[in-house]
Amino acid sequence: MTSKEKKGPPPEQYLGPEKKPNDDDGTLRPQSLGEFLGQGTLKENLAVFIAAARKRGESLDHLFLTGPPGLGKTTLAQIVANELGAKFVQTSAPALDKPKDLIGLLTSLEQNDVFFIDEIHRLKPIIEEMLFIAMEDYKIDCVIGQGPGARTLRLPLQSFTLVGATTKAGNVSSPLVNRFGITCRFSFYGTEDMEAIVRRSAGILNIGINADAAALLARSARGTPRVLNRLLRRMRDFAQVQGEALITRQVVEEGLRRLEIDGLGLEKYDREILRIIVERYGGGPVGAETLAISIGESSDTLEDYYEPYLIQAGLLQRTPRGRMVTPLAYGHLGLSGGGDRETGRNSLF
Ligand code: ADP
C-alpha cells in the first residue's frame, strides 16, 4: 500500500481537513453571496457574472473552484445555485464510477441548474471524455446494448452550469480546465474576515464571545473557516465545562493550549512535520512521499491540508528537490540551526 492510498483514522485532536458529519455545516453555511464573507475580488466578479447570466436568462458559464480544503468551495457552489434560483445537484468524482452514474445525474438536470463535482481531479478518463461533450454541446453519449449489436445514442441535455472543485488544480487535465469559462482561486482568509466569520457563527450558534476572544480564535484557525467553526465549538465546550456563560480570552487561551494549537495557529502535526524535516533530514530537502510516511499521514493530507498553510506562514518551502524548512521554522520551534534565522520560539501567545 502506498502512502497515497493510506487512509487511517484521523489523529485525536485533528481539526481538518475532511468534512465531518458533526460539522453542522447546514446551520453555519452561508446561503447567499451577502452572507459569504471575505474572498473579496472573487466574490465581486462572480456577482457580476451571475447577474449577467440572469439578465440573459442563460446558464452561467462553467465554474472552476480551486484552493485548500475548508475555504468555502462547496459553500460558494451552493450559493451560485441559490443566486441563480436553480437546483443544486452535488456529487464527487470518486462517486462517478460508471458512465451510467454521470448519465443519471446529467439527465436529471433542468435548465440553468448547477451541477457540482467535488474533487474533480479524481475523475476517471472515460467520465471526463463524456463530460467534455456535456460541457460544450449539452449532449451525452449513451451506449445501448452490448457486444457487436451495441450502438451509441446521443441524448440532448438542458443547458446547465458545471462547478468543479479541487484542492489540486495541477492534477486536472488541461482539456478539462480549458472548458471552464470562469476560474476562482480561493486563498486563506485574513484575520478581519475570520473575525467576521467567527462572530457570525457564534451568533447563529447562540454563543456569547468576547471581542478579544474572537480575535484570538480568528488568528488561530489557519485562515480556514471550517477549522474556525470547529474551534468555536470546542471553545463552547470548554466554556460550558468551566461554568462560563461566555467564551472569554482566558477560555480560548486555555482551550488552544489543551488542543496544542500555538500562536501561529499550528497544530501538533504541523510542528511534527517541521521537526521531522529538521531532525531527520537536516532541514530538507525531503520528498513528499517520504515525509508523509515519516509522519504517518497520507500524502494527500500532507499536500492538501498541512503544507499550504505551512508554506503561507513562511515556515516551509516546496522545491524541485523536495520540502525544506525555512529559518523562520527553526525560530518557531526553538531549535538551533537554519542560518540567519528569526527567533520566535514556540510560545503560544
Ligand atoms: P470546501 O468545499 O472548500 O472544503 P466548505 O464550502 O465545505 O469548504 O466550507 C466549510 C465551512 O466553512 C462551511 O460549512 C461554512 O460554514 C464555512 N465557510 C466557508 N466559507 C465561508 C465564508 N466565506 N463565510 C462564512 N463561512 C464560511
What portion of residues belong to β-strands? 5-15%
How are the strands of the biggest sheet laid out side by side?
A: 2-3-6-1-7
Number of strand segments: 11
Shape: globular
**Assembly state:** single chain
| Secondary-structure element string | HHEHEHEHEEEHEHEHHEHHHHEEH
What is the terminal-to-terminal distance?
Answer: 41 Å
| Class based on secondary structure composition and strand pairing | alpha/beta
Bin the helical content: 40-55%
Contiguous low-pLDDT stretches (5 residues minimum) are: 1-13, 340-349
Which small-molecule ligands are present, each listed once?
A: adenosine-5'-diphosphate
Give the overall pLDDT as a whole number: 90
> How much is the radius of gyration in Å?
23 Å
- Number of continuous helical runs: 14
Largest sheet: number of strands, sense, barrel closure: 5 strands, parallel
Structure description:
The chain has a five-stranded parallel β-sheet, covered by helices on one side. The protein has a two-stranded antiparallel sheet with strand order 4-5. The chain is globular. By secondary structure, the chain is an alpha/beta fold. It contains 14 helices and eleven strands.
